[in-house]
Amino acid sequence: MGAAATEGLRERKRRETRQRIAEVGQRLFLANGYENTTLDAIATEAGISRRTFFSYFKSKDDVILFWQQAGASSLYAELLKTSPDVSPLDAVRDVMVKHIERYTTEQMIAVDNLMRSSEALRARKQTHYAEQEQALFETLCEVWRQPERRTSLRMVAMVSVGAMRLALQAWRDQTGQRKPVAKFLRDAFDGLRMEL
Q: Per its UniProt record, what InterPro entries does this chain match (predicted)?
């Protein structure tokens, strides 16, 4: 029996309310900027009181963290479906590219601008990379279970997150007609593969 089937009405309503608050927060952040979006605005748009907001999130940063984690969770869920016969680096590349292809260039620009709009968010982004690396490593260990592979799986997690960071930087630095982020991510993994 799945988690949704065993979830009670109260838990489902709480999950749905949390999701609604996060979606409203994301939309307002992208439309108005992080600094210009208040907790009161998020609460009002989500149809809750400011006090209720704090029952679900501690701060605006937590709203952003929620949707970052939701995106990462879907990536790890896809990776768990990978056959252990596939190379871990190839599997991570394929899942990351597939995940990032879901976003339009306009969405990526908006999210990138948002995440660079304040010192708090820039710091949060750096923390997120470290958390992402650890979660990726743990996911890899669930697919490739041999204990003797843990060190190499750790390296795959490190270089994969590094490739993603470099791809995002190259994408951000491009001039003229913007190419999709996925192209830069594929190129970063191809460059990594050539050096191995």
A: DNA-bd_HTH_TetR-type_CS, Homeodomain-like_sf, HTH-type_TetR-like_transc_reg, HTH_TetR, MftR_C
What phi, psi does 7 have (nearest 5°)?
-75, 130
The pTM for the full model equals 0.81
What region, left, alpha or beta, does residue 33 occupy, with left being phi > 0 and alpha being psi -120 to 50 degrees?
Answer: left
Residues 37 and 119: beta-carbon distance below 8 Å: no
> How many residues are there in the chain?
196
In percent, the amount of the chain with pLDDT more than 70 equals 97
Annotated domain spans of the chain: 1-57, 59-195
Asked if CATH classification 1.50.40.10 holds for the domain at 1-57, the reply, yes or no, is no
Residue 74, token pair as written in the block: 């879907």
Question: pLDDT by residue (tens digit) across 78-134?
Answer: 999 999 999 999 999 999 999 999 888 888 888 888 888 888 888 888 888 999 999
DSSP track, 98-154: HHHTTS-HHHHHHHHHHHTSSHHHHHHHHHHHHHHHHHHHHHHHHHS--GGGHHHHH
Class of domain 59-195: mainly alpha
